[in-house]
Design a protein that fits this description.
homodimer, alpha+beta, Dna Ligase, domain 1, three-stranded mixed sheet, DNA-binding
Chain lengths: 141, 141
DNA sequence: TTTCATGCAAAAGTTTTGCAACCCC
DNA sequence: GGGGTTGCAAAACTTTTGCATGAAA
């Protein structure tokens, strides 16, 4: 996604536009590796040497409330996902890589629909992780 | 599950049996509310006043490695799940309750099978959370 | 007897908070 | 100009670690 598109998205959501925010949003949205806060901090810091982690945390919570990114808490630290479609995260327990994966046949939609239709719960968003070994770690073992 | 059954399970897994471990395992396995470490600590402490949180953490990691419980990291703190079947966690964003739910039609099994069959990933275990409003919070709103 | 768990204390690491200066709208 | 954001520092909290004592096998 281009810088201009991201700026427009932020404005659409009523988020005040600052250079730091734009840079942070750009890094998270254009990273497919589900970066940690330290990853994001480190990548954005190349452009804003005075940036602090507090600003990164603050911005990420703004982006999350706007629905642009999702926080994925893990045991050690959170990862961030900018894919807001219904998908599965394939989490490698060895190298800690995370890859998005389509579940196929609209299975996830069907599960959510059924729960919604029961009237016992009102769905907002979801997280589906499958833990195991990624292709690369499989080869190495 | 009875104390005797739990003791047997621990022994089967080669876990050294201590009164503290048995009590912690019993609390987690017989709690359907997905307790936090502090919840577990507080419940077991009634019986073992000298118990420390370090022991609770240590025991939980042993139980997790044995596959008896699953850790669910959240933003604030982890919750513990003793349901090792393929299910969905309905997580209320208002009252923070977590209720297990069957997905129906073996959808989860089908999704996992497809990923496994692709040969690109080797499944171990999974976590599927749906966030939203629980029945009770829906009524109150 | 040997090995491992417990309790206690301290450390580590992530995330949050408070506040003054500054920038966006 | 007004209100929200940044940067800096410190605090809060969960989780981990080290080590001596004590209990399980």
């Amino acid at each position: 996604m281009t810088t201009v598109d991201i700026a427009e998205k932020l404005r659409d959501q009523g988020i005040r536009l600052t250079p730091q925010r734009l840079a942070i949003a750009e890094v998270v949205i254009n990273s497919a590796d589900h970066p940690t806060v330290r990853d994001i901090y480190s990548r954005v810091r190349d452009f804003f040497p005075y940036l602090t982690v507090a600003t990164v945390y603050s911005t990420l919570s703004v982006l999350e409330r706007a629905g642009l990114v999702a926080q994925l808490p893990f045991q050690k630290e959170s990862r961030y996902d900018s894919n807001n479609t219904l998908h599965v995260n394939l989490v490698c327990t060895k190298c800690e890589s995370i890859v998005d994966c389509d579940a196929g046949d609209n299975y996830l939609e069907k599960i959510k629909d059924r729960i919604q239709d029961s009237g016992l719960f009102q769905n907002k968003y979801q997280r589906f992780d499958i833990y195991g070994l990624c292709e690369n770690c499989l080869k190495l073992s």
